[in-house]
Specification:
single chain, alpha+beta, seven-stranded mixed β-sheet, globular
Length: about 450
Amino acid sequence: MLHPRPVGRLADRSRCFTPQQKKDPLQKNGTTRTLQTVKDADGAVTSRVRRTVLPSGLRIVTEQMAGSRSASIGVWVDVGSRDETPALHGCSHFLEHLLFKGTAERSAMEISVALDAVGGEFNAFTTKEYTVFHARVLDEDLGTAVDVLGDMVTASTITELDVEAERDVILDEIAMHDDDPDDVVHNLFAHQAWGDSPLGRPIAGTEASITAMTREQIHRFYRRHYRPENMVVSVAGNVDHTAVVRQVRKAFGRSGFLDGEATPASPQQTDKARRVQPGEARTVRPQEQVNLVLGVKGLTRTDPRRYALGVLNTALGGGTSSRLFQEVREVRGLAYSVYSFATHHADAGVVGVSVGCLPGKYDAVLETVRGELAKVAEGGITAEELERGKGQLKGGLVLGLEDSGSRMSRIGKAELVYDELLTIDEVVSRIEAVTLEDVALLARELFSQPELLAVVGPAH
């Protein structure tokens, strides 16, 4: 249930910065607002996004999609591995698992049966900055999904027996990821970048931290962070906003969870990325391949230059026509897998290149990748690459939002971590506005920085 790599309050001081001013005044508790309305050429509404803020601070955001027969719900909680002290390392992910184990009303089996019986898809994931529980069902079964998720996140029993059983499951999961050199090298890269801080540690924790964690510690963490003001419920599909609000009030109102008043947590943002620690980290393992990640400090998730970075990343290593894929794999035959990536956090980011190759080709791979980064730093990208990159980004964006699950994720994440919800057309316009000069300036700034290198494989 770990969130795949390319992602509350901090456990250390690294995220204690002043949020940017939101573009619109904060919506008052107990009110409903229409955020977006999209119409087709004939004037018919094809999509409408609405938001209600309950007195407790719980936010409910819906997108009504014309023509859809499914409905997706996500419960977004403003807590992740960045909120953990060393003693609680891995607690967010541990808790994510435990919330499936049962409540006063439902056993773990009954939770599973409730969604399986209606053909629903049901899962969760943990990132460094938030945790998400999500389900996708037929529109007529949305009430069941809302009720099950509401019960889970507000009334989990977290028994000692469940903690001990799930502890072994998580230790197995950690061992599984430790056997995957790609996971290991990316964790090593994050540790090189941010050191022994919440941002630099792996999301799942370590064998030592999970073994030592007690039921009492996990339960206190649960009660401290799983509060209405730290949550967003996002729903998309063939839904009615008023009906969803009614269902959420009933499902989440168990045991007085929605009693009291609170101000919703504000997105924490800055355009200035925190420092990374340049240098090399290496783990020797007797395996057939060498896995390496080479990168530099990147951008935060709200930096306006992220659209230019998206185009740059696509041209550099975002597909089979990219520079790295062509030069490393197609022309030189040095590796099977090579790609570039950009990871964004509230106050930090990295840009990097990931490659897996035979040990004998390591030196040539590293030289080739460094050469391509130097070229783009010196000369930017071509006009053809610019247009191709924009096309890939726009196509991926639009095609990726054709189902209710992706729409639910878009509005939920926007509400929890961004200061605005852009329409699809607004995002496309920002991509279209990227110029060759924008990309060239950004490439020069990024790839003139000291590099970070993480390597996992045989002794070299």
